[in-house]
């Protein structure tokens, strides 16, 4: 059982990236999914989540308007589309899937995003 993250890399300011997390060994359908990030020397920061119980999406102020969380149930994959990237978005990005009954909580291994010219 794991979440396998990918899609990070080096991008110029103003550019875009799409992060992916494939769920293996379980089905994302019944999980609330979320994205977090951790910059060097800082605490892990919540960015966005999709609540499976009500199909609502939520964003932190730094992500709202630039980042979009989504899920493809057929591919058992969750995404974070990131646009208008800024140098301060540089961090390791983590995906998370938590079952609606809170019994299961899985994290991806993290993928590095670097925004620099």
Radius of gyration: 14 Å
- Contiguous uncertain segments of 5+ residues: none
Characterize the main sheet: 7 strands, mixed
What is the mean predicted local confidence, pLDDT? 95
Total E-strand runs = 11
| Class per helix and strand makeup | mainly beta
Element pattern in H and E: EEEEEEEEEEE
Shape: globular
Distance between the termini: 37 Å
Relative helix content: under 10%
**What amount of the residues lies in strands?**
over 45%
Number of distinct helices: 0
What is the subunit arrangement here?
single chain
How would you describe this protein?
The chain has 117 residues and is mainly β. The chain is 0% helix and 55% strand. It has strands at 2-6, 9-11, 17-24, 31-38, 45-51, 56-59, 67-72, 77-82, 91-99, 105-107, 111-115. Strands 2, 4, 5, 6, 9, 10 and 11 form a seven-stranded mixed beta sheet that branches. A four-stranded antiparallel beta sheet has the order 1-3-8-7, with no helix packed on it. β5 and β6 (56-59) form a beta hairpin. It is globular and about 40 Å long. The model has no long low-confidence stretch (mean pLDDT 95).
Concise summary:
Helices cover 0% and strands 55% of the residues. It has 117 residues and is mainly beta.
Quick tags:
globular; mainly beta; single chain; seven-stranded mixed β-sheet; four-stranded antiparallel β-sheet; 117 residues
Topology at a glance:
Elements: E1 2-6, E2 9-11, E3 17-24, E4 31-38, E5 45-51, E6 56-59, E7 67-72, E8 77-82, E9 91-99, E10 105-107, E11 111-115
Parallel strand pairs: 2-11
Antiparallel strand pairs: 1-3, 3-8, 4-5, 4-9, 5-6, 7-8, 9-10, 9-11
């Amino acid at each position: 059982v794991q979440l396998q993250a990918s899609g990070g890399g080096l991008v110029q300011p103003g550019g875009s990236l799409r992060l992916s997390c494939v769920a293996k060994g379980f089905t994302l359908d019944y999980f609330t999914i979320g994205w977090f990030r951790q910059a060097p020397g800082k605490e892990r920061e919540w960015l966005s989540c999709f609540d499976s119980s009500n199909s609502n999406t939520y964003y932190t102020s730094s992500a709202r308007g630039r980042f979009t969380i989504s899920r493809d149930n057929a591919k058992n994959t969750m995404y974070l589309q990131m646009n208008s990237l800024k140098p301060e978005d540089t961090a390791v990005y983590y995906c998370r899937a938590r079952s609606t009954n809170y019994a299961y909580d899985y994290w991806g291994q993290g993928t590095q995003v670097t925004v620099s010219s």
